[in-house]
Amino acid sequence: MRTWLAGIIPHITFVSSSPQTKDQNATVTFRFAVQPEHSNGFGNLHGGCNSTLFDFCTSAVLGMVNKPGFFFWLGVSRQLNVTYLKPVPVGESVLIESELVHIGKRMAHIKGRMRSERNGVLLCTCEHDKVNTDTNML
Q: For a designed S-S bond to 66, which of 2, 50, 60, 71 qualifies (C-beta 3.0 to 4.6 A apart)?
């Protein structure tokens, strides 16, 4: 049996990242090519697929700062809020930018933005709150 994420991962590619510094938040950017199997009945990216993409891509930015006992397993979602601004049609290539806005001992706050790779138009945004579940942290 193929999982939902297994149908998405092959279409995600790493683009760039920047580390956390005292003056800059950690960021990571991925490219995603929307396939027919990711669409809704209108030929656009399905909202559930969109949320899954944001969950995966925004969690990945924690890999820029994690270590044993500190988001080593990237935590679990506490809240994932997606705002859909424009439809994303099948065939569109998008850039998913994730920014680690805040991280503490137990929680992290991450923002995500999905833009058309073709023209840079903002298509949707998200806010993702994660909880550290590392057992040696508790």
A: 71
